Structure formats: C-alpha cells, structure tokens
Amino acid sequence: MFLNVVSLLVGFLCLFLVALMLCSSKPTQKSNGYLIIILFVAGLQRFVNSIEVLGFINTTFSPLKIKMTLAFFIIPFYYLFFKRLIRKKNNLKKEALHFILPSLFVAFDFIVTDYTISYYWYLIFSSTYFISILALLNELFQLKKLNMLEKRNYKTIRGWAILMATITFFLVVYSNYFLLSDKDPKINLNTFYSFSSLLWLVALIYIFRKPAIIFGEHYLIKSIQKENQQDILIWSDKPLKEIESKDQLLFQSIIETVETIVLNIQKLQNNTSFISITTLTSKTIAKELKLPKSHLDIIFKYYCYYSINEFGNLVKICYALQLINEGYLNNYTVESLGEKCLFNSRFTFSKNFKKFIGVSVSNYTKEGQNEI
Predict the structure, then answer these.
(1) Consecutive sets of 10 residues in the chain, 372 residues long: mean pLDDT of each?
(2) Potential cystine with 149: which of 6, 135, 170, 358 (Cβ 3.0-4.6 Å)?
(3) Is residue 222 included in any domain, yes or no?
(4) DSSP 185
(5) Rg (the chain; Cα; Å)
C-alpha cells in the first residue's frame, strides 16, 4: 500500500515537472526533449498503474500490459537523453534512426498474431544500448576543458547522470527478467513500478534541489549575472600536475613564495582600473609585480587552470561580464564593448566570450532579460 502511494506521488510529480518544463520553455532556452519524454512516460505509467492497483479504476491502460514489445522503444529514449545531456548536440534525422528497429519489432508483433518474437532480441538490443550509455558516461567523466557554464554545472550533471544511469540499469535488468520469464515472472509490473518509484523519488528530489537540470542554460546564466566574477575558478592551491624534472630546481626556489605571487596576480586581475588599460601577459604581469618571467611561467604552468594567454583573455571577458551586468550594452554596441575590453576586433571578442562563457554575447544578454 505504502509503495503504491509513493508510486502515485512520483507519477504526479513527474507529470507536474513535464508541465513546468513545457510552460517555462522560452525560444532561447535549450531543453533536453528526451528528458521530458522520459518523465512523461515514467510519470504516466506509475500514475495509471497506481490508480488501477489502488482500486480507482478496473480497466488497465498500461501499454506494456497490452503489448510487451513496446518496451523496445524505451531504451533508445534513455540513450538519446544521455547523448544530448553529455554531447549537447541535436540531430533529429540521425536520432530518428534509433527507432527504426523498435518500430519493425512492434509492427511485426501487431501484424503477425500467431508468432511470438524471441525476447532474446530485446536482451541483445537493450544490453547494447546500455553499454553505449556507459561509454557516454565515461566521456562525461573524462571531460577536462570546460567553459564557465560547464564548470558551474559539471558536478550537478555528473550526479544527475549517475542517478539516471542507475534507473536505466534497473530498467534494463528488470525488463529483461520480465520478458524472459515465460509469462510467469515472480515480480510483476506493479512491483517494478513500486520499487523503481523509490529511485525516481530520489531523482525528483535531486531535480528540485538542482533547478539547472530543468532550466538549464537560462538558470546558469542568471546565476553568473548575480555573482561576483572573482569567484570563477582560475587558480589551484596545489600543483595541478607532477613537477617536471627540468622545472624542479626553479620550482624549489620559489615554492615558499607561490601563495604570495598568486595572491598578487589575483589582486591584479581584479584591479579594474589596471585591466581596463592593460592586457595581462607574462610581460605586463612581470613588470607590474617586479618578478622574473621564468617565475611566472612556473606559476601558470602548475597552478593556473589556463595558459597565460588564455588567462589574459579570460580576465578581459570577466571585465566584459561586469560591464554587461552594469548595463553597458544598454547604451553601447557589442563592438564597443569588445574594444573597451581591449580586444582587437568584435570577432575575437565574440569568439573568446563563447569559449569561456559557453554562450554568445547576444544569448547571454537575452537570457539575462528574462526571469525564471
């Protein structure tokens, strides 16, 4: 009884989230359509099954109880959800190819009534897709070069991906057990919906705690606009990699002053009056801080997440964000903003903005004008 009530609650919350995502969707807001489909199907299945089991209705409306071959459609949706989540690329024509084989199986099952499709095909089919999902997860865990939006959202996405992979694993294992049990499984669909609802409940709590999963890029841009740009992760308090033998001697000579040098560079990068007239390069930083260039090279090589050239451009982009958030573009053009931030051209400015922030200047400003 308790699990059935939980299943009913999960079904309602999934459908509520679908409605929320559809209603809050904006032209500039990117949503993972497969997440919406998965939430809708999972919610509808559990909601309908619960009201049936609890005695509110007598007739079953569960498609899987009518035609089990419809299960072939489920796993490609999960795979394409992970693909969009991790690779962030949409290609509807290629994605549609994933549903050709399930369509053939279902059509055959409906047309040929005196022959049953071997569910070992589903075992091969679902196992192949789940292995592909694990490969996508490995891609996610191996990501290194991240822009500001990706860095801000990486832990959230990683946790969300692990949760959804757990749900997918549970789905693949149970669906194969059910289909291969020769119509006499010890665990029925109601039991599966009930216990899997506990996993879905954890996933839903995670979603409500991490709004970026629902609102995506739009929510992250708003968070960037509200915070101090000094909070952007640029420096590490420990060496980012093993010290090479050729650098050992110089590294040992400056190790006691590393913290002070990094602190002075941070003060420089946050000095608006200085960065508005000077591009931070190894030469300008060394001159301002009265340090040998070789010392700076060691600091950037082992303690900075960016090369010294990338660092200089990132500081200029952070200055641009500050100006945008102060309303600079209300009176001036993007080209003027790029010039004020010491970029040689609008193209160079736009390219670096997209590289470090993850969206174009126009998308950033459009999103900023909308409240969630």
Answers:
(1) 87 91 62 86 87 73 66 90 86 90 84 71 91 94 72 80 93 82 63 86 89 64 51 80 93 92 91 93 92 93 91 92 89 93 93 87 72 40
(2) 358
(3) no
(4) -
(5) 27
